[in-house]
Amino acid sequence: MRESPDEHPGAESRAVTLFLCGDVMTGRGIDQILPHPGKPQLFEPYMRSAVDYVGLAERATGTIDRPVDFAYVWGDALAELERVHPHARIINLETAVTASDDAAPGRSIHYRMHPANTPCLTAAKIDCCVLANNHVLDWGRSGLLETLDALHGAGIRTAGAGRDHAEAAAPAPIELPGRGRVLVFAFGMETSGVSRNWAAGKGEPGVNFLLDLSAQTVDAIARQVGAAKRAGDLVVASIHWGPNWGFAIPREQRDFAHRLIDAAGVDIVHGHSSHHPMAIEIHRGKPILYGCGDLLNDYEGISGYEAYRGDLALMYFPTLDAATGSLARFAMTATQTRHFRVNLAPEDGVHWIEETLNREGRKFGTRMERRPDNTFVLRWG
């Protein structure tokens, strides 16, 4: 196990701690409890109003007094962020931020949060929203353009979607005074439900779409990283890939992650789409998160897949050496979604995550070590 940077004099000045998580879905039912709810109309087979998702949650876990304030949805996560004080905060925002009525045809689910509720993201001081996912164009290209305007207007960087292919492929740079930068590149794949028709093009808004996990794709990413990366920069490759449920990690996915680190200059692979946390691997000193789970959603009261405990998630706090990009320490905090907010996970939830990720991490040589305060430190090697 690599030692914590604060165990060596002078190492703290080289250390960069990130906050990463999986899907953050502030649309639909959650949008309805925020100060400025958008139109509740839905086009789902079994639900015609987003307000009904609030009712489902209340029947499952109790009344939600509304409207809530913007910080409400982050719950206990705010204190954890203040305690850890990461240098950069990166989430996968799995909703459009729009008042558009241009619902994408052929889809049974459309997520949207009203732009006036964007302060719910700044309440947690989010630096970068990854948008290369299967819901950012739920309300058409006009909805994507409004999403970009709302986030950029709030001072939040975006990665993985843009007004054209160049903007969608460009990294989001997060400046860290005295520590270089964090560059966030983001990609979406068809295996997670991202439509090929959503790919950004020349003069065409859309997402940064990955056609495959081939060596040629790695080469293309390596050229992009090489053109942007400077000495002292850390590179995050954030990828929306794979199904919502299940712990299996395809060999080609693992090989691709390894090649991103070996050949493309990536320092951390940030995978998401799974609704539950998946195994963590450390490859040549660089972390690979194959699936981070849902930190926040409006799924309370919806049955199915209970064995995967989709209500549980992790806040990931990897600490990297800014000079080398190597992982020095990896802390995590277990959470549970209740009442449309992020709460510290109860004892049974902490135990479930510990047992599950130790089981899944065994093949990768990683282990979750539980601390007295119910947080985790990753051990590897």
Q: What's the gist of this structure?
A:
The protein is an alpha/beta fold and 381 residues long. It is 24% helix and 28% strand.
Task: Give an overview in words.
With 381 residues, the protein is an alpha/beta fold. It has a single domain, classed as Metallo-dependent phosphatases (Purple Acid Phosphatase, chain A, domain 2). The chain is 24% helix and 28% strand. The chain is built from 9 helices and 21 strands. The chain has helices spanning 28-33, 51-61, 77-84, 119-122, 140-153, 165-169, 215-228, 251-263, 347-361, and strands spanning 15-24, 88-93, 96-97, 112-113, 128-130, 157-159, 161-162, 172-176, 180-189, 206-207, 209-210, 234-240, 268-272, 280-283, 286-289, 294-296, 312-321, 327-338, 341-344, 366-370, 375-380. Strands 1, 2, 5, 6, 16, 17, 18, 19, 20 and 21 form a 10-stranded mixed beta sheet that branches. Strand 8 and strand 9 form a beta hairpin. Helix 7 packs parallel to helix 8 (251-263). It starts with 14 loop residues before the first strand and ends with a strand.
The Cα radius of gyration reads 19 Å
Structural class: alpha/beta
CATH class membership:
Alpha Beta
The CATH topology corresponds to Purple Acid Phosphatase, chain A, domain 2
Which architecture does the CATH hierarchy give at level 2? 4-Layer Sandwich
What's the average pLDDT? 95
How many strand elements? 21
Low-confidence stretches at least 5 residues in length (pLDDT < 50)? 1-10
Our estimate of the beta-strand percent is 25-35%
Largest sheet: 10 strands, mixed
> Can you write the helix and strand succession as a string?
EHHHEEEHEHEEHEEEEHEHEEEEEEEHEE
Give the name of the CATH superfamily. Metallo-dependent phosphatases
Number of helices: 9
- Count structural domains: 1
* Overall geometry: globular
